[in-house]
Amino acid sequence: MSSVITHMGVGVVIAEILLRIWETDPDCVIKNRLWFWLFGAFGGLVPDLDVVPAIITGEMMWTYHHIYTHTLLAVGIMVVITAAMRFKPLPSTVLAGFVAHLILDFFDNSILPFSPFDQVTEWGLHISDWFVANGWYFELDLIFFTFTTTYLEFGLTLMSFSLIPIALYLLKRTWESDIQASCAVNLGK
Ligand SMILES: [Zn+2]
């Protein structure tokens, strides 16, 4: 399963692409970059927030995982919410991050498209399972818990982390700028 870091990283990359589609003025790209990234990362994170209720109630962390938020129903609800916001750039960026999360989980593992009504039908390529079957995984010891990670997942997570210096460099330009231009998204810093 892809880590939350990878999902948020993918959300940021998609947000950057959408930013460049919506904002044709380079000044506006710089000005609104942080907002797009935050919304893209949030969209990438949202589906996996389904582990939070079980943590709160003290149940097994994976009790509700994939049951509600990794489904076509969830995508439908997200599309309706985004449509209600007239597909404005930032809500649409959240939607794109959300959908990208499910696509990544589809490749990596599987999703339950028709859940919660049908929890048997699975769509997925189970790439992680292939790595595990071939011994391409190891135990990662964190202070609070140990978990098993495939080399693919670990590599993708490292790649996401390696984007951080580039991200900080790009955001520095937002801070240094004093752009008054009128942009498609007028939030600025
Ligand atoms: Zn997920």
What this model shows, in words?
Helix 2 runs antiparallel to helix 7 (151-176) and helix 4 (72-84) runs antiparallel to helix 5. The protein has helices at 4-22, 26-45, 52-57, 72-84, 89-108, 127-133, 151-176; strands spanning 137-141, 146-150. The longest helix has 26 residues, at 151-176. The model has no long low-confidence stretch (mean pLDDT 91). It has 189 residues and is mostly helical. Strand 1 and strand 2 (146-150) form a beta hairpin. Zinc ion (ZN) is lined by residues 47-48, 70, 101, 105.
Annotation keywords:
single chain; 189 residues; mainly alpha; two-stranded antiparallel ribbon; globular; binds zinc ion
Outline the secondary-structure elements.
Layout: H1 4-22, H2 26-45, H3 52-57, H4 72-84, H5 89-108, H6 127-133, E1 137-141, E2 146-150, H7 151-176
Antiparallel strand pairs: 1-2
The chain binds zinc ion.
